[in-house]
Design goal:
31% of the residues lie in helices and 17% in strands. The protein is α/β, with parallel strands linked by helices. The model has no long low-confidence stretch (mean pLDDT 97). The protein binds (2R)-2,3-dihydroxypropyl phosphate and manganese (II) ion (MN). (2R)-2,3-dihydroxypropyl phosphate is lined by residues 81-82, 132, 136, 167, 194, 196, 199. Belongs to the LTA synthase family.
């Protein structure tokens, strides 16, 4: 037949990483609970302010033997920020080079997204909980195209004078008030909680803050970031307490991730002393390293531990699908299962910079500036084989971005339906008056 889909299918088939038998299907039939930690960067994990842990609960999860905790995991968003993270997590395709895929194309495109696949393959019910208005990033339309059964947006949560920050319901309220809906969902369910309180400008009223000591740098954004991250941590702990009390904990797998950076490059020098670093020696290399975000998979009896393999948001969906016992071979996924021995460890950013386990590379019109990860030094005179290898990585990963753009910009999934998949009809979904 020969359509534009052929090069995409070729790439995906050749790039496919088969499941690791040790993990394949270990979460089959479990409820999936995804906790989106807004603007949460990995450096917060285990960090302290005046000898006090910033995020004690998330730290305990990070070090729990029932958690697969990835220490070299990077966000890969572009201008679509949260919505790009969602695009990658639900479809294993990238956001766009400019703007948000959700608002620009997601309202009309054909999807083969996680909620529809899980419903059709394993009878999952799906829902999103989010304390902002439903039309933000066009979620109320995009989620229908993805096949989300339910979307609980701001109107489902109590609105009082002090219930919200600029970005919507405070996280503790979001979690507490979601429970009555969560309990009514047909199991197994696939659910996503999008938190908002740890979002720039990181402001919270004094009565929402406990005695956690804010850092005292001369940069208010940095200081506030630590206090809202501390609040988010406490909100997640309350949610876990509920999951345990209700028994849902025992038949669920919980996935936590930070969607993207919270502090801009311009704020990093103010942050440096809090990370025991001299701001005067802070470099672009350090900025690249700071693009790590948490990715944790937690489940009772999971054989976890801290994972050193490199990966990014594009890899989350194939990893989850394989844990749930769904082989990803026939889906148009550009990421690879982080737990597979064949996982592709090279991480491409939306601006074409990339990180490999050994090097961090700036790519400016195919001119590569290569930093060595072990030293942070620029290789002024890289060995020919290093230059050659990284040039090949750049080519391959750029091709990956281009294929993603081709699929998304020309709505190519219209022309390819995976085996055993029924295209989603968005008219079947309505998010008004759910469970009311
Ligand atoms: C808005 C929230 C924040 O609803 O998801 O989005 P961001 O500004 O991070 O893209
Ligand atoms: Mn965000």
């Amino acid at each position: 037949q020969g359509t534009n889909m052929d090069p995409v299918l070729d790439y995906v088939h050749q790039h496919y990483a088969a499941p690791n038998p040790q993990f394949y299907g270990v979460a089959k039939g479990k409820n999936v609970i995804i906790l989106h930690l807004e603007s949460f960067q990995q450096f917060l994990i285990d960090s302290k302010v005046k000898d006090q842990e910033v995020t004690p609960f998330l730290n305990s999860l990070y070090h729990d033997s029932n958690t697969l905790a990835f220490e070299n995991f990077f966000h890969e968003v572009g201008q679509g920020k949260t919505s790009d993270a969602e695009t990658m997590l639900e479809t294993s395709l990238f956001g766009l080079p400019e703007g948000s895929f959700f608002t620009n194309l997601g309202t009309n495109n054909t999807f083969q997204a996680a909620p529809a696949i899980l419903e059709q393959q394993q009878g999952y019910t799906s829902a999103v909980f989010h304390g902002n208005i439903g039309s933000f990033w066009s979620r109320d339309t995009v989620y229908k195209n993805m096949g989300y059964n339910y979307f609980f947006d701001q109107k489902y949560f109590h609105q009082t004078a002090d219930s919200n920050t600029y970005w919507g319901s405070k996280d503790k309220i979001l979690f507490a008030e979601s429970i009555k809906y969560l309990e009514q969902l047909q199991q197994p369910f696939y659910t996503k909680f999008l938190t908002v309180t740890n979002h720039n400008p990181y402001q919270l009223a004094a009565n929402d803050l406990d005695d956690f000591p804010k850092p005292e740098t001369n940069n208010t954004m940095v200081n506030n970031y630590f206090s809202t991250a501390h609040y988010l941590d406490a909100a997640v702990k309350e949610f876990f307490d509920y999951l345990k009390a209700s028994g849902l904990y025992n038949n669920s797998i919980v996935i936590l991730y930070g969607d993207h950076f919270g502090l801009n490059e311009g704020d990093e020098k103010a942050l440096a002393p809090l990370l025991d670093r001299d701001p005067n020696t802070w470099t672009t290399f350090d900025h690249l390293q700071l693009q790590r975000v948490p990715f944790m998979i937690h489940m009772p009896n999971l054989k976890g531990g801290i994972q050193k393999q490199y990966g990014g948001e594009i890899d989350v969906l194939p990893t989850i699908m394989h844990l749930l016992g769904i082989n990803t071979k026939n889906y148009i996924y550009l990421g690879t299962d982080l737990l597979s021995p064949q996982h592709d460890p090279n991480v491409i950013f939306r601006n074409r910079n990339f990180i490999t386990p050994k090097y961090s590379v700036l790519n400016s019109n195919n001119h590569l500036t290569i930093y060595q990860n072990s030293t942070g030094e620029v290789l002024t005179n890289p060995k020919p084989q290093v230059q050659k290898q990284l040039t090949q990585v750049a080519q391959q990963k750029n091709q990956e971005l281009e294929l993603s753009d081709l699929v998304n910009k020309t709505n190519l999934l219209r022309f390819y339906t995976p085996p055993h998949f029924t295209p989603v009809n968005p008219k079947n979904y309505n998010y008004q008056n759910q469970f009311q």
